[in-house]
Specification:
Order of helices and strands: EEHEEHHEEEHEEEEHEHEEEH
Number of helices: 7
Strand content: 25-35%
Number of strands: 15
Number of domains: 2
CATH superfamily of the largest domain: D-amino Acid Aminotransferase, subunit A, domain 2
Pathway: Cofactor biosynthesis; tetrahydrofolate biosynthesis; 4-aminobenzoate from chorismate: step 2/2
Structural class: alpha+beta
Function: Involved in the biosynthesis of p-aminobenzoate (PABA), a precursor of tetrahydrofolate. Converts 4-amino-4-deoxychorismate into 4-aminobenzoate (PABA) and pyruvate.
EC number: 4.1.3.38
Catalytic activity: 4-amino-4-deoxychorismate = 4-aminobenzoate + pyruvate + H(+)
Shape: globular
Bound molecules: pyridoxal-5'-phosphate
Helix content: 25-40%
Distance between the termini: 24 Å
Radius of gyration: 19 Å
Oligomer: single chain
GO molecular function, one term: 4-amino-4-deoxychorismate lyase activity
Largest sheet: 9 strands, mixed
CATH topology of the largest domain: D-amino Acid Aminotransferase, Chain A, domain 2
């Protein structure tokens, strides 16, 4: 299976980067995860716009134009399959290990396509655990520096959960690898864009679908207390799509099953995907 590395397509086993790569030494890079439905990248422009934002946040010029990115992805994508594109750009391999940016160093550009394995928790929902958000102030950038997210997710898994819901200064930011929605007094609420969270493309699609279908929704802060009183909680991401949280910190959410608004939005989301085939 071929992957893309720095201008070439080669078998995954042969794709190698230097141990001096700043991605390896410093976590100095950004990434994207783009679903591919029926052989077509989903919301590609939104993902490439977010890539621009992430690169700008770490002051790394985008090595490719949008049409070059499209050309790079095309040979990786199999026809008619549900897959995802993974794309990573690091500041490259410099001869000298130095925190400051190197001069005259080409970025490392890597892309591959992998099958989407349907998420086991979709039908029944998952348990989630809240915890204090230990991350930094650039969470709007999709950086490969994911150690804090990993430790949050593992802490949730250690407690029998499927996702960590992160709380900063008393308010929900997002999940370890997802955005958070709550149904509060019948209104679908998700925290608004800020440096404290990644603006998910799945989140964007759900807000659009809610608006188009006259489902009451708003972007505003969700306090930890409001989250505890929510009739429904969901986490959303490109890989898992919409997942209901049916247990929060050991307490049942709603009636312990994915709720009516989840059913509605999940159906709308699946129908929207299908309409693009
Ligand atoms: N927030 C974080 C920290 C993520 O890692 C992700 C995706 O994995 C998301 C939110 C959801 O973003 P998207 O819907 O674009 O996948």
């Amino acid at each position: 299976k071929a992957v893309y590395l720095n201008g070439s397509y080669l078998p995954l086993q042969e794709a190698k980067v230097s141990v001096l790569d700043r991605g390896f030494l410093f976590g100095d890079g950004v990434y994207e995860v783009i679903p591919v439905y029926y052989g077509k990248p989903f919301r590609l422009d939104s993902h490439l716009q977010r890539l621009d934002n992430s690169l700008a946040a770490i002051r790394l010029p985008n090595p490719h134009s949008r049409s070059e990115w499209r050309d790079i992805f095309a040979p990786l994508v199999a026809a008619d399959k549900n897959q995802y594109l993974y794309l990573q750009i690091t500041r490259g391999a410099a001869e000298k290990r130095d925190h400051a940016f190197p001069e005259n160093t080409a970025p490392t550009v890597f892309a591959m396509c992998a099958d989407i394995v349907p998420f086991a928790g979709t039908q029944d929902g998952i348990a989630a655990v809240t915890m204090d958000d230990s991350r930094w102030r650039l969470c709007h950038a999709k950086t490969i520096t994911l150690l804090a997210n990993i430790l949050h997710r593992q802490a949730a898994v250690d407690q029998g959960g499927g996702e960590a819901i992160l709380i900063k200064d008393g308010n929900v930011t997002e999940g370890a690898a997802s955005n958070v929605f709550a149904v509060l007094d019948g209104v679908l609420v998700t925290p608004g864009p800020s440096p404290a969270l990644l603006s998910g493309i799945t989140r964007e699609v759900i807000l659009e679908l809610a608006q188009k279908n006259a489902i009451p929704c708003r972007e505003s802060a969700i306090s930890a207390a409001e989250l505890n009183s929510a009739s429904e909680i969901w986490v959303t991401s490109s890989i898992r799509e919409l997942i209901a949280v049916v247990e929060l910190d050991g307490a049942v959410v709603g009636d312990g099953k994915p709720g009516p608004l989840w059913q509605t939005l999940n159906s709308l989301f699946q129908a929207y995907k299908q309409s693009l085939s």
